[in-house]
Amino acid sequence: MKNNFIHNLFFRLFSPPIYGLMLYILVLLINDRIGQLNENFELFEALLCVILTFLVFEGMRFSIITLDKIYPFSRNIQFRIIIQLLSCGLVAILITSAVISLYFIYLVGFSTFMEELLIFSSLWLITSIFFNLIYFSIFFLNEQNETELSKEVALRKNLEFQLQTFKNEVNPDLLYSSLEDVISLMHEDVDKADEYINRLSTVYRYTLDNKQDELATLKSEITATENLLELLNITHNGNIQFSIEAEEQDLYKELIPGTLPTLMEYLVRTTIISNVQPLKVHCYLDGDNYVVLQSLLNEKLKPVRNPLKEIKAIQKAYSFYTDEPVVRVKAYHEQLLKVPLLSLEVEELAD
């Protein structure tokens, strides 16, 4: 875990002086009264505590690095925690004992310093426990964050896949129906069949041309919808009507390519359409946030297979860009399909 605090250069450089001085003052308080601190405070002893702190911290850090290599957390978390606590405690005691012994024997000239050694060893044993507790806390927090990040990356990739699938999807029912209409028209009127084929190619060219685009304008979506209706009205004898109510500036607001044609396919697929009951779809903007398709509610009596597949596909695609939902409302013999308008923020690169 290179991103843990113990490997941070600032921590390694600045924590020993701070903690070492605190430790030295604590030792003085154990042996003396507060009023005697000024009398007994010695700069060399304080420096010795700073050096001891640096050596112990680096020793524990080296111990943890070694354990990461020979016995990582992935093998057995509980056993690794126990080993790390024991090894760091042993390192802290050995280094403390060695430094304190050298100091008293060679610099001070004392041969009896068991009480001081016991105090320092106890303090550093406790320090090693807190040191490791903080390390474990940060380690497992990082592990949790990485797990959550992995989930977010996987979710994003799934949303990207759903978005690309939606933009690239070719409606097989529409294609099959269109081929039947072409064959029928070729027997009746070759010119109409030729015009129909051109219109069909325009519909699918829109899908191909926009599959790499992030967004499309409302104007281009309306044009694609009108081209689609030219095909659908051959099958439904011109009984599908589409009207748009929008200001000129509103036509340049954006949607995911294929949104309006897909919603129109949904309405046609799930609605009874006849000379007596034509399908009239009115498109308008609800404020600055939604584009709405409004039509009379006249659902087919026979259950339609997977009736909401287009709505679900659009919702999955839009979830890549916004938290705003795709809304389907049924009220007073009408249904409303509301889709959020989108806009991409373009980051300007600094010169």
Main traits of this protein?
63% helix, alpha+beta, 5-stranded mixed beta sheet, 2 domains, 351 residues, 10 helices
Describe the protein's architecture and organization:
- The protein is of the alpha+beta class.
- It folds into 2 domains: 5-165, no CATH class; 174-340, 2-Layer Sandwich (Heat Shock Protein 90), CATH 3.30.565.
- The chain is built from 10 helices and 7 strands.
- It has helices at 9-31, 37-40, 43-70, 77-108, 114-168, 172-188, 190-210, 218-235, 259-270, 309-318; strands at residues 216-217, 240-245, 254-255, 279-286, 290-296, 327-331, 334-340.
- A 5-stranded mixed sheet has the order 2-4-5-7-6, with helices on one face. It has a two-stranded antiparallel ribbon with strand order 1-3.
- A hairpin with a 2-residue loop joins β6 and β7.
Which secondary structure elements does this structure contain, and how are they paired or packed?
Elements: H1 9-31, H2 37-40, H3 43-70, H4 77-108, H5 114-168, H6 172-188, H7 190-210, E1 216-217, H8 218-235, E2 240-245, E3 254-255, H9 259-270, E4 279-286, E5 290-296, H10 309-318, E6 327-331, E7 334-340
Parallel strand pairs: 2-4
Antiparallel strand pairs: 1-3, 4-5, 5-7, 6-7
CATH architecture of the largest domain: 2-Layer Sandwich
- The CATH class of the largest domain is Alpha Beta
What average pLDDT do the residues reach?
80
Counted beta strands: 7
Could you say what the CATH topology of the largest domain is called? Answer: Heat Shock Protein 90
